[in-house]
Amino acid sequence: MILIAGLGNPGTKYEHTRHNAGFDTIDRLAARHGIVIERPDRKALRGDGVIEGQKVILIKPQTFMNLSGESVGDFANFYKLDPATQVVVFSDDVDLDCGNLRIRKKGSAGGHNGLKNIIEHLGTDKFIRIRIGTGHMLPHGDMISHVLGRLDQSDQKLFDEASKRACDACEMIIAGDIDGAMNKFNQKNSHNK
């Protein structure tokens, strides 16, 4: 069994903002595989299905971004999952150009409060994260306004392509090829290749 979490903030006010890249991407993955994410469970909306022959639980934590770990940690503990191999997280990354992906098996939160909270609740930084670039903030800009803002039309197109590739990468990871996914999708400006 693999737990896949898409990070974001609940509520229509936050729909399709940069910070909700994880929600948008997990919705895309769910739609590909006919999984409906709507059942409330452990401070999240949950959907169950099978991807690449593996049982999966797809979740969208409903605790707001900074407390995402409460739900992710609760699922991991309840199902006795090994975070290093059975937890995958989709999140936004404002340090990546829009359209780029960064897949890691472990590491710091990189200033992302949702990932930081997941590390705290899992008790480890060893879990797979697929970070989706949402573009850099303008110099002297306000970070909160930036992450809660929406992409312009050209960046939205880049994001949509990256979100599709993030789903492709996740499918490879579920199939057991994390290294292959990292090699294929971590290339800088891979959306131009």
Automatic annotation (TrEMBL):
Q: Sorted alphabetically, which InterPro entries does this protein's record hold?
A: Pept_tRNA_hydro, Pept_tRNA_hydro_CS, Pept_tRNA_hydro_sf
Query: Where is the protein localized?
Result: Cytoplasm
Identify which top EC class this enzyme belongs to.
hydrolase
Site keyed Stabilizes the basic form of H active site to accept a proton: positions: 92
What GO MF terms are annotated? peptidyl-tRNA hydrolase activity; tRNA binding
Q: Does the keyword RNA-binding apply?
A: yes
Instruction: Please give the SUPFAM superfamilies that the UniProt record associates with this protein.
Output: Peptidyl-tRNA hydrolase-like
In its keyword annotation, does this UniProt entry include Cytoplasm?
Answer: yes
Q: Which UniProt keywords apply?
A: Cytoplasm, Hydrolase, RNA-binding, tRNA-binding
Residues of the active site: 19
Q: What's the catalysed reaction?
A: an N-acyl-L-alpha-aminoacyl-tRNA + H2O = an N-acyl-L-amino acid + a tRNA + H(+)
Residues holding tRNA: 14, 64, 66, 113
Protein's GO biological process: protein quality control for misfolded or incompletely synthesized proteins; rescue of stalled ribosome
Question: GO CC annotations?
Answer: cytoplasm
Give the Enzyme Commission number.
3.1.1.29
> Mind telling me which residues the site (Discriminates between blocked and unblocked aminoacyl-tRNA) is annotated on?
9
Q: Which proteins does it associate with, and in what oligomeric form?
A: Monomer.
**What is the recorded function of this protein according to its Swiss-Prot or TrEMBL entry?**
Hydrolyzes ribosome-free peptidyl-tRNAs (with 1 or more amino acids incorporated), which drop off the ribosome during protein synthesis, or as a result of ribosome stalling.
Per the record, the similarity remark reads: Belongs to the PTH family.
Name the record gives this protein: Peptidyl-tRNA hydrolase
Origin organism is Candidatus Weimeria bifida
Q: Which gene encodes it?
A: pth
